[in-house]
Structure formats: C-alpha cells, structure tokens
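Lab channel / #folding
Pinned by the channel admin:
"Please post every new chain as: sequence first, then the structure tokens as a reply. Keep commentary short and put observations after the output so the thread stays searchable."

First post following the new format, from NK:
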Amino acid sequence: MQIKDDNLMGKVLTTLTVINRADQIRSEDGTITPENIRSITLHNVLVDTGATTLCLPADAIAKLGLKLLKEVDVATATGIGKARIFQDAKLSLCGREGTFECLE
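Reply from TO:
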C-alpha cells in the first residue's frame, strides 16, 4: 500500500488482485484448469478507510464472472435505489487474502 501526498493528502492508494473464488474451488476439484480461474489486478485503487463493503465497477464484476447474491435498497444523495451484491470475490492485498461479497 502506498500513501501519496502530492494532491492526495490523506488518501491511500494500493494495487488489488481480485479472484473469482468459485472458479478457484472448481480448479481445486479439477472441474476447470488453473488457467481458467478469472482474476483481475487493479492499480491505484483508492482505499476508503471508513467503508464496510467492497465496491467494484460492473465491468470488473462481469470480467470476474461473480454470481449475484441479492439486491438491496441503498440510500444515495438522489434518494433510495437498488444495488446488487455479488459473492465470492477473493482479495489479495499486502500479502493477505480474504473472500468477500461486493457491491456493484
């Protein structure tokens, strides 16, 4: 993780790898080859230290092939809307890993 202070004071940027955990499980049981595990690496990702949920853009979710878990109501500046939650996003960050749901 890197902290940049040139016009980004107080902001934390990092490189983040996201793997489709469901693909990884299928690879482990031999259903697919390791080369078919979908993953992406995102550079200069802004870390929101107050966030409680991983958020990924729709194109990243599509590339990873993450499965829709549920739709939820969200409050935004323009009112109440719907958002989609996807599952099995495995993050690799600073030598640590974890599997999370993500908000589109």
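NK: Helices lie at 21-28, 58-64.
TO: also worth noting, The chain has one domain: 2-103.
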